[in-house]
Amino acid sequence: MKWTVNPNYDANDLWAQWSTQGGSYTEVAGWEVDHVEAVSLSGISGNYATLKFKVKDAGANHNYTDNIVFTMARITDNTGTSPYVFPVGKVRGYDTMSITHIPLEDLDSNIYIKADANSNFDVTKVGVVVQKNGSPVSNNLYFDSGGQINVTDYITTSTDSYTLDFVTSYNATEWEALLDNIITISDVTLTLNELGKYGHGNVGTVFTTGIQYSAVDSNNDRDLTPQDAYNLLGHVMGSIDIIPDDGTGIFNNSFKPIKKTDYNTWSIYKFKNNVTEPNHSVVHPITVDFSQSSYTEWFKFGFIGDANGSHSSPVDGTDASSLTARSNNNYTISSAPVMSYGQQILADGIIQGEWSTAIEDGKVVATLRLLSTEVTALQLKVDYDNTVLTFEEAVFNTGNTVTNFASETNGRVNLGSIEQNGGEIDTGDVFKIYFDGNVTSPVGLVSIFNTDAANTDGNRLILNLQ
Ligand SMILES: [Ca+2]
Ligand SMILES: [Ca+2]
Asked: Which residues contact 230 (CB under 8 A, 6 or more apart)?
């Protein structure tokens, strides 16, 4: 009988090879298997067993380590009322164990990475790679749906330096689409409101956390100024990009994992008083307290530009967790309405609109009719079939003091309007989008990717389209 390693686990991870539908035996001439077991009521220490073999054919320069293999092992401890089975990763064999035996450190801690993510964000799409002294020792390990990763198998010494490198399973295009939902017009209005642009006398009292300040301080001068709001607006309009580019990709430059305690305690005072900002890079050193049987490193996640916390982790101890639902506590994420196009969002209220597509003078025309008053900002992202249609123009009928914008990339039109001083957008047919195309029906050619809106207080609204 010869042993075949389960390739999903390290060959020397002996309990993994046993317990996880692990390694297997097949009939091979010349190979034998022996099983050795011992039980003691008082504990086993030192040399547990010495196996002696008679050499049949040593040959020249023969390496005995190739001929003796420890295949599987299980170790239990009966302290307490039920046996404790040492977990996967803790029962180790060694390539050289038939000659000498150098045990790993006796570290019994189970080590977890946990995350408190916003329910709008799919935590299973991010994870970590464990690095030991700068070299990866794990594959991409993604958070489970409960926001947890077990890294016990990868942090095996108390003397080496370990880091967690955050990764995503989204490709760059998918991550960019996610950011299209994270950084929207209501982030701009809330920022303008914080700056007192809406004439309600709310200067400096709209934002409640340092996380919000850091999210929108796009010029990194540790001050929140109209320039930051205009940068954010420019980003939403598609005219500038607030996401820095250090060459390592859009995920690394927009995702902000922060240790939970740092995240919760990062205050506006600290932001303004030049206290060193907590590490929000995608690389975090981890130092495990091995005196604990279970050690957990907690994270929360922020995103660049997410002033209203629509996708960032809630901040404990403030009302930021209900930031987007501040004046309407009737909505929780589970009871928030699901929009006709599948998006579920928290907001201060609901406004009504109508969406229609028709053929007019040979062109496909998509129209948004706004039915509600007291709307200060409105944004729409519209996908269209660019194999059939060509985007021609967007026509606005929103009012004299309103800033309008429209841009198009790869089959998606981004358009919107904002009254930057907190005034209202007119009601009626506010947006008309014209497409060229030789079609007889508009059905299925134009659809909404997302919407966002804000009221004259700068707070987020759900646009309910009929
Ligand atoms: Ca700034
Ligand atoms: Ca947001």
From this structure: none
